[in-house]
Amino acid sequence: MTSVYELAEYADSLLETATIPDYAGALNGLQLENRSEIRGIVAAVDFSTRAIMGAIATKANLLLVHHGMFWDAPAPIQASSYRRLRLLIENDIAVYSSHLPLDRHPTLGNNVLLAKQLGLRPTAAFAGFQGVSIGISGESRIETAVLAEQARKFARTCGSEVRTTLIEGNRQTKRWGICTGAGASAETLKEARELKLDTLIVGEGPHWTAVYAEENETAIIYAGHYATETLGVRALAEHLGAKFGIPSSFVSAPTGL
């Protein structure tokens, strides 16, 4: 039998949680403990009522998420936040969250698994954040429209739709970069320009990035924030399940974004 502390300690070491920088509200690692031995793991992209109900339905008592319980400034535990916490405590469900440490992991990470999903082979790091590269990059010889269609097929299996810029005609993707989730940031686009990447694959980005892409002749494939971050939590849950002999599953709760 495995306690949540044993499992969390292993996951922290595997993901290098203590050494990977992140946003202040991420609070990576064990976010809510429980008292019973872990009998089942449920993975979900987001901490939500749907995710908690998925854990209850499968009688799992560890919820593994990418976007955790704490993102905003401290607030009273009322209404929906109270209802979620009550469900967790009444059902003795622990919560473990991993954001950027999971994004960047070399085998279980969202970025490397998305590259594999699209048939791309990473050869270098990309998307620096506070001195650590979160994304990946590489070289290829593929029509950008073909790459976008592969991303579209994948995203639709996750309830998301792909948006694109500059993929028309016979445009070729020769140098690409991947940064899942909200990957089309000003810093990421600047780095892509410095590395002379012609194609950027992200989850989502603000409106201005599409204008920037056109002006700088950079194709961007917005493959869906939710879709691009389903891969890591699935892989981590399966890895932990195999390691500790615990059943694992995934709760699909797409946002359409």
Layout of helices and strands:
Blueprint: H1 4-15, E1 29-32, E2 41-46, H2 49-57, E3 62-67, H3 79-90, E4 94-97, H4 100-104, H5 110-117, E5 124-129, E6 132-143, H6 144-157, E7 163-165, E8 172-179, H7 186-194, E9 199-202, H8 207-215, E10 219-222, H9 225-228, H10 230-244, E11 248-250
Parallel strand pairs: 2-3, 2-11, 3-4, 8-9, 9-10
Antiparallel strand pairs: 1-4, 5-6, 6-8, 7-10
| Biggest sheet descriptor | 6 strands, mixed
Q: What is the CATH architecture descriptor of the largest domain?
A: 3-Layer(aba) Sandwich
Ends distance:
38 Å
CATH topology grouping of the largest domain: Udp-n-acetylmuramoylalanyl-d-glutamate--2,6- Diaminopimelate Ligase, Chain: A, domain 1
Topology as a string of helices (H) and strands (E): HEEHEHEHHEEHEEHEHEHHE
Strand order of the largest sheet: 5-6-8-9-10-7
Shape: elongated
Q: What's the Cα radius of gyration?
A: 19 Å
Secondary structure tally: strands: 11
- What percent strand? 15-25%
Total number of helices: 10
**Average pLDDT:** 97
What is the name of the CATH superfamily of the largest domain?
NIF3 (NGG1p interacting factor 3)-like
| Tally of domains | 2
The share of residues in helices is: 25-40%
Tell me what you see in this structure.
The protein is an alpha/beta fold and 257 residues long. The strands form two sheets. A six-stranded mixed sheet has the order 5-6-8-9-10-7, sandwiched between helices. The mean pLDDT is 97. Helices cover 38% and strands 23% of the residues. The chain folds into two domains: 4-98 and 230-250, NIF3 (NGG1p interacting factor 3)-like (Udp-n-acetylmuramoylalanyl-d-glutamate--2,6- Diaminopimelate Ligase, Chain: A, domain 1), CATH 3.40.1390; 103-228, NIF3 (NGG1p interacting factor 3)-like (Udp-n-acetylmuramoylalanyl-d-glutamate--2,6- Diaminopimelate Ligase, Chain: A, domain 1), CATH 3.40.1390. α5 (110-117) crosses α10 (230-244). It is built from ten helices and eleven strands.
